[in-house]
Amino acid sequence: PQLTTMWYLLDGNEILMNTKVGRAKERNMRRDPRISICIEDGYNYLTISGSVQLINDQETAQHDIYRLAARYHGEEAARQQMQEQFSREQRVTLRLACEHIIDDLE
């Protein structure tokens, strides 16, 4: 098992994430696509488990990392990150189908 912090975005009924090709988390998910994520807000949390789909298409992966960067840093910073870093990397999009949900939301 591996624990890692990742950017995420709800896209329809799936959780969208993205990583650089070659990282340990990508290799681990190719070997075993079952993952869990936990989203917390103080004493409230949501845990989602399921199987992740890895999408290697670079046009899709680059578009998705831009969407994630814009969510966390804003449009201007996302454009700069794309130009300076992400566009030079091989990326992979991760899509988690929500198969099991546990929550403690108030």
SSE topology:
Blueprint: E1 9-11, E2 14-20, H1 24-31, E3 34-41, E4 44-55, H2 58-73, H3 75-84, E5 91-97, E6 100-104
Antiparallel strand pairs: 1-2, 2-5, 3-4, 4-5, 4-6
Q: What descriptors fit this protein?
A:
Pnp Oxidase, Chain A; 3 helices; 32% helix; alpha+beta; 6 strands; 106 residues
In short:
The chain has 106 residues and is an alpha+beta fold. It has helices spanning 24-31, 58-73, 75-84; strands at residues 9-11, 14-20, 34-41, 44-55, 91-97, 100-104. Strands 1, 2, 3, 4, 5 and 6 form a 6-stranded antiparallel beta sheet that branches.
The helix/strand order is: EEHEEHHEE
| Terminal residue distance | 29 Å
Label the overall shape: globular
CATH architecture descriptor name: Roll
Named CATH topology: Pnp Oxidase, Chain A
Number of discrete domains: 1
- What percent strand? 35-45%
Main structural class: alpha+beta
Main sheet makeup: 6 strands, antiparallel
Uncertain runs with pLDDT below 50, 5 residues or more?
Answer: none
Helix content: 25-40%
What's the alpha carbon Rg, rounded to whole Å?
A: 14 Å
Helix run count: 3
Number of strands: 6
Broad CATH class: Mainly Beta
CATH superfamily: Electron Transport, Fmn-binding Protein, Chain A
Mean of pLDDT: 95
Description:
With 106 residues, this protein is an alpha+beta fold. The protein has a single domain, classed as Pnp Oxidase, Chain A, CATH 2.30.110. Helices cover 32% and strands 40% of the residues. The protein has helices at 24-31, 58-73, 75-84, and strands at residues 9-11, 14-20, 34-41, 44-55, 91-97, 100-104. Strands 1, 2, 3, 4, 5 and 6 form a six-stranded antiparallel beta sheet that branches.
